[in-house]
Amino acid sequence: MLRNCYISSQTMKLASCTTALFLLTVLVLAKDDVSTTKKPNFLIFLVDDLGMGDVGCFGNDTIRTPNIDRLASEGVKLTHNMVPAPTCTPSRAALLTGRYPIRAGLASKTVNTMFGCNACTGGMPPYEITFAEVLKEAGYETAYLGKWHLGIHSSYQDYAYLPNNQGFDYYYGMPFTKINECADPPNGRSSVMQLMRISKLIYYWATLTVVLYSFVFVSKWFNIVGFRGSLIMFVSVTLFSYLLLKYPESSQRFLCILMKNHEVVEQPIRLENMTVRFTNQATSFIRENKEKPFLLMMAYVKVHTALFTSKQFAGVSRHGQYGDNVEEMDWSVGKILDALDQNGLKDNTFVYFTSDHGGHIEEVAVEKGREGEREGGWNGIYKGGKSQVWEGGVRVPTVARYPPSIPSNTVISVPTSTMDILPTIAKIAGAKVPDDRIIDGREMTGMLFGKDKIAVHDFFFIYCGPWIHGVTFRPDEEGIVYKVIFTTPKWTQGTQACFHTWLCQCKGRFVDQHDPPLVFDLTNDPGEHHPLKLTGETKALIQKAKAARDRHEKAVEPVTDQFSLYRSVLFRPWLQPCCNFPYCSCKEDNTDM
Questions:
Q1: With contact defined as beta carbons under 8 Å apart, do 113 and 92 qualify?
Q2: Cα(55)–Cα(178) distance, rounded to whole angstroms?
Q3: Going by C-beta distance under 8 Å and a sequence separation of 6 or more, which residues neighbour residue 441?
Q4: Which one of 22, 130, 171, 301 has the lowest number of neighbouring Cβ atoms within 10 Å?
Q5: Is 120 a catalytic residue?
Q6: How far is CA 567 from the centre of its chain?
Q7: What is the signed CA dihedral for 279, 283, 286, 288, rounded to 10 degrees?
Q8: Which of 57, 80, 88, 304 is catalytic?
């Protein structure tokens, strides 16, 4: 009987061990299953002013870009990826929202195509929904690093336009753009604000000052306000006038700032080690969020002027300061990709690399000894550049990698757009695309994953301001890609650039209207050298493009013009970000590298 009890006891122990072992196995398998079904991460690289011809995998054999080239070899190269507007601000809004920028009021009839100050009230409206907001709804951690250039405040210190109000949990970067005012030491080029300082704007400043003081005097003379009120008005006008006058001379401090969320952490910004700082922020974010699904957007302030590099990249390329900039940017891409590898995230991260538009070919050096050296990008075989309807302005170098689904070393040559990234991200993440508005981008996972080659866009419209200058389309699934051009910029004689205006303009005496429009076969003539002869077939293509343009324009609802001079140029002192008023001068700690 005792023996039976002993056997029973041993049997129970064995059963308990077996059960425990079974449960442990189930837990391990469940853990493995969770890891394989974890939501994918998203890493978006956006470079400023990078041309189609600047990258090795797109044909450059003299600038070294091994990390971008590696991305292409491990994923897919999109050779006909386009932006809907070839300047910074509208293009960035389109990428984030999947919508033509005119829908957000980022298409002005004036010459202005950007926000001229940090203390302006224009920006990408908060009613727009970004892919960060789409992923936030699906439980993602989100961060935006680098250049924003989509506004700060709509009214007093509300931060309405910053990334933190557009779906990003963390923001570290420049709210404005990087211009020649930010260079230290100055690179010799006449800056925008210096030109303003010696232009007719000094006359307008004097006139405005006289008018404001006259208003104060009249108000007091007719007893509209008392002594105290008139004194407050006098001091306010004096302060406003002084700041307006000194703005050009202090523009570096006002324009070139670094923010962390809503806090100014450096004013003016020190450019030299900026790329290193952005890279460290990116790798830290990846490391800290490796157990969670995340979206990281790295929007480089390179390779826009003013050109700058860290010390270890100065003079290393065969193409001067511009080549140095491209090679340091590629180094940063490599470091961030390494962080994915080191944290076991490579196979579960969708990576997308692109530029906001083509290279800025009007940018050339003026420094002694460097006169005429290229400081803007190279667009390879493609005509024109930044701010132009030609392919050099709207076609951008783009690669994507997602090892579970995108076949390695593949090429997509049919038209795609940076606007496609929002619906594509949503599809991969299993998130919901906004259904209360028109989304112009198209989900392209079938194409990326090698399942089909059907173009996702029937027609693609190229904007300059609120005007459609060109239409790209493919009449049938397997046929030729055509481009119909209605308006082209007037170049400086003997060039493909607008050196007389620094950027090509959109209307009036600065453009040529084509009637009949020009028609190009982009499949066989991607450099747009030979417009097709006007035949019955060509006329039919023009009519299709015009009909599509008219249908599209009818579907665009009028909204507030964010680029009006009142919103995008008028400086409001009370909106100026400042780290320690009234000095507005500070340096970020622990950043010497």
A1: no
A2: 22
A3: 98, 99, 417, 419, 420, 421, 422, 423, 424
A4: 22
A5: no
A6: 21
A7: -120
A8: 88
Q: Are 164 and 203 in contact (CB under 8 A)?
A: no
Asked if the bond preceding 185 is cis, omega within 30° of 0, the reply is yes
What's the pLDDT at 511? 97
CATH superfamily of 38-178+259-446+560-575: Alkaline Phosphatase, subunit A (3.40.720.10)
Angle at the Cα of 413 from the Cα atoms of 486 and 385, rounded to 5 degrees:
45
Is 304 known to be catalytic? no
**Annotated catalytic residue, options 80, 120, 149, 360:** 149
How big is the chain by its Cα radius of gyration, in Å? 27
Question: Which alpha helices (DSSP H) does 468-561 contain, by range?
Answer: 536-554
Q: Residue 365: is the preceding peptide bond cis (ω within 30°)?
A: no
pLDDT of residue 184: 65
Share of the chain above pLDDT 70, in %: 89
In tens, the pLDDT along 153-191 reads 999 889 999 999 999 999 999 999 988 888 865 555 655
Chain centroid to CA 371: 29
DSSP run (H or E) holding 472: strand 467-473
Give start and end residues of each alpha helix (H) in 421-482: 421-429, 445-448
Q: By the 8 A CB rule, do 310 and 55 touch? A: no
Of 592, 593, 524, 589, nearest in space to 260 by CA: 589
Query: Residue 564 gets which letter from DSSP?
Result: S
